[in-house]
From TrEMBL:
Origin: domain of life: Bacteria
Arginosuccinate synthase C-terminal domain segment(s): 174-390
InterPro entries recorded: Arginosuc_syn_C, Arginosuc_syn_N, Arginosuc_synth, Arginosuc_synth_CS, Arginosuc_synth_type_1_subfam, AS_cat/multimer_dom_body, Rossmann-like_a/b/a_fold
Enzyme class: ligase
This protein's name: Argininosuccinate synthase
Database matches in NCBIfam families: argG (TIGR00032), PRK00509.1 (NF001770)
Domain Arginosuccinate synthase-like N-terminal span(s) in chain numbering: 4-165
Listed GO MF terms: argininosuccinate synthase activity; ATP binding
Lineage: Bacteria, Bacillati, Actinomycetota, Actinomycetes, Streptosporangiales
Secretion signal, residue range per the UniProt entry: none
One GO cellular component term: cytoplasm
Length: 399
């Protein structure tokens, strides 16, 4: 019986070449699945047709933009997810959703093998295969670039020999992955970490150094979910999409960093995430207003661990599920408005208001009307510092 391979298909050189290559190597039929995550670029119908032209027996395009925004970007926002305190999980956030649709296609079309275009030194191989292990452990996995030592030069040569309808003459110096939540760029001259990124690297953001008028925006949250911009009700997808445009036009969300990959190497990455950076900044500030101190302190550690789990490909894991429950509990009162100025590469919070606010003006003010009883402070300070005082006395005895 001929096996069917379900291929995560991007429409690019590597995955296009994988269609006839897998068919020959494994004597298999290839089913392609392309997922629209709001990445923009080439028309999805053209990608669907290219898969058939390259030899796929089935070609599926999934419009997952709203699903990605609501079920993946919003949870990342509520977790203030920033890997190494900087990276808003652009690629790692999309992989579990792609895996979900690969499994669905395998069930629909009788697939027994799943394939992806990841190499052996990247994080994405882990994200795909850890997700598949959780959702469909019976499916086998084949990764041509890793399992068959398939290099880009070989891919170009193979595509030209087969006459595949894919551009091979223009060799983009960068490896790029993008979706609604952001854009990741690596390789090329960026591999020398002394080289600064040039403007050609960027696509989602304008040069922040160029003069322009600032953009004021008011973002409204309900239980940690962004629901309105400037009073207009929008879906999470529409909120992120609009902020990508507006914050991107102000150069917000450029990140240049050397990060710790899961496989143990350090990698230089350049990211653009205008909407994500603006939203996370706004959400963090609203949490400062509405979340009780000890819960807020504990959640910061939870947020960091959540980010690491998702970066490491463990979206479908018991610990991630448990952390989701705590984060959801912490979002119950995160409702209100945040005003921001988008300008010169920064998203700066200038105002916040909430019916769930824990900020009490009469307690905070230093002017007339102050209701804070300062007479209680002296005893509080003495008791609070007592353990340190006792320890210091002990140490003094020892000289």
């Amino acid at each position: 019986m001929t096996e069917r391979v379900v291929l995560a298909y991007s429409g690019g050189l590597d995955t296009s070449v994988a269609i006839p290559y897998l068919a020959e190597k494994m004597d298999a039929e290839v089913v392609c699945v392309a997922v629209d995550l709001g990445q923009g670029g080439e028309d999805m119908e053209a990608i669907q047709k290219r898969a058939i032209d390259c030899g796929a027996v089935e070609s599926v395009v999934v419009d997952a933009k709203e699903e990605f925004a609501a079920d993946f970007c919003v949870p990342a926002l509520q977790a203030n997810a920033l890997y190494m305190d900087r990276y808003p999980l652009v690629s790692s956030l999309s992989r579990p959703l792609i895996v979900k649709h690969l499994v669905s296609a395998a069930q629909q079309f009788g697939g027994t093998v799943v394939s992806h275009g990841c190499t052996g030194k990247g994080n994405d191989q882990v994200r795909f295969e850890a997700g598949l292990a959780a959702l469909a452990p019976d499916l086998k996995v084949v990764a041509p670039a890793r399992d068959f030592a398939w290099t880009r030069d070989k891919a170009i040569e193979y595509a030209e020999a087969k006459g595949l309808p894919i551009e091979t003459s223009k060799k983009n110096p960068f490896s790029i992955d993008q979706n609604l939540w952001g854009r990741a760029v690596e390789t090329g001259f960026l591999e020398d970490i002394w080289n600064g990124p040039t403007e050609e690297v960027y696509s989602y953001t304008a040069d922040p150094s160029q003069p322009r008028e600032p953009d004021e925006v008011v973002i409204t949250f309900e239980a940690g979910v962004p629901v309105r911009i400037d009073g207009r009700s929008l879906t999470p997808y529409q909120v992120i999409d609009e902020l990508n445009q507006r914050a991107g036009a102000q150069g917000v969300g450029r990140i240049d960093m050397v990060e710790d990959r899961l496989v143990g190497i350090k990698s230089r990455e350049v990211y653009e995430a205008p909407g994500a950076v603006a939203l996370i900044s706004a959400h963090m500030e609203l949490e400062n207003v509405t979340v009780e101190r000890d819960l807020a302190r504990f959640k910061r550690g939870v947020d960091q661990r959540w980010s690491e789990l998702v970066y490491d490909g463990l979206w479908f894991s018991p610990l991630k599920d448990a952390l989701d429950a705590l984060i959801a509990e912490a979002q119950k009162h995160v409702s209100g408005d945040v005003r921001m100025i988008l300008h010169a590469g920064k998203a700066t919070v200038t105002g916040r208001r909430s019916a769930q606010s824990l900020y009490d003006f009469s307690l905070a003010t230093y002017d007339t009307g102050d209701t804070f009883d300062q007479s209680l402070a002296k005893g509080f300070v003495q008791l609070f510092s007592l353990p340190a005082k006792i320890a210091a006395a002990r140490d003094a005895k020892k000289g």
